[in-house]
Write a structure and sequence with these properties.
Blueprint (H helix, E strand, L loop, with lengths): L6 H33 L16 H5 L20 E6 L3 H9 L13 E7 L2 E7 L14 E7 L3 H13 L8 E7 L22 E5 L10 E4 L24 E8 L5 H10 L7 E5 L8 H12 L1 E5 L9 H8 L3 E5 L13 H5 L5 E3 L5 H9 L3 H34 L8
Amino acid sequence: MKVRISLSVLSVIFFVLYLLLTMLMASKYLVSEAKKDICGQSSPSSCTPDLGKQKAEEVLSTSVVQPSEAGYNPPEDESKHIEIWSKAAIGWYFWNSIFNARLQEKPGEPWSVGSRRFYKYTFTFRHGPGVVPNTVPADVRYLVLILNGRTDEKVRVARQWLDLLPRLVLLQHTAVVLHGSEFCNNTWIRPYLRAHGGRVDALFVVYDDPDVNGEDIFQWPLGVATYRGFPQGPYTIDFKSPRPHSCNFLGTVYANSSRETLLKSLLSVPDHSCLLKTRQQWTESETHQSASEYVDALLQSDLTLSPAGINPECYRQYEAAALGSVPVMVADEPPVGRCRPGPGLLRRHGAPFLWLRDWRHLPELLRREAALTARQRAARRRRLLAWYEDFKRRVRNEFINVIVRKFFHGEDGKA
């Protein structure tokens, strides 16, 4: 049996095939153009970023960042999901210590990522060199940026991230955690605040910045020096064995500083059992040996002498508290730059440190310490560690409450 197909039927078939081919070519063209828009590249084949070399400014030239589902697994309730993008070392302290959360590192992933849920709010934290504008989820609605503003170069990079915000088309609310200047020279960020016409609803800034007002600018703890290899914890603290040193000071002694007064006062006590190791020049990085010696000094000392550096608040106070060595400080150290006298945050939270009027009173303090029993020292160590854990919990809860108030207009569910 022969099947005959008329000329008109063949014409219809060829016409349908032509339409399908045309639609396929058009869709390929649109996808190609979309890739150009997202990546800011002239060729779609170059859309995959070189995470080791990609510079933020090359991506920030893109006019609009469009939503993309690539590499993004949203939580069950997307409306209560907050992204945290960390571009500063204090991000590790934020996530590991304040949020008491951990990160997962997967081979081939551009970042370390972790999630933590509080009540009905899910926080997703991303940290690492792969956190660049063209790899982070562009469909973010609620965002926390952790930035470094300590130097002019760090501020330049921080500005690039803040300038990205208007290009995130679905973004509704933003907060910034800023490692600010030790002199509190942070006025450059004001135009980015919503109160000044910007997109940042809340700013959490390290050090005693005079602009902290409890409304949209809040103080944030400096934390431990993760960038210098200080261990993240959890820590094993011995409460039974007496510590061999009454105090320690391992640090740089700057000329004409209060540290010279401290050193002179300590050396005036001939029978002191303090561990002392000084240097004349500060170095940003530590060797494995020097870092290990520092941690051992904290673990083996009842007290840690913590004189002001450029700023009264320093890593040493948090590191000593974490390891059960009571920080000793001078109350109301003279402010530097624009800063208020500090460390205000630690005192407002009732830090059980030992406070001196002046380092010249150190010999008297050491004499009182010598009269304490081992049981009294152990009890004090327990109180310090309990306070520090409670301090981190309160800082976290205050942060979450601000986020709920600013991002979700104060709906129920305080942490």
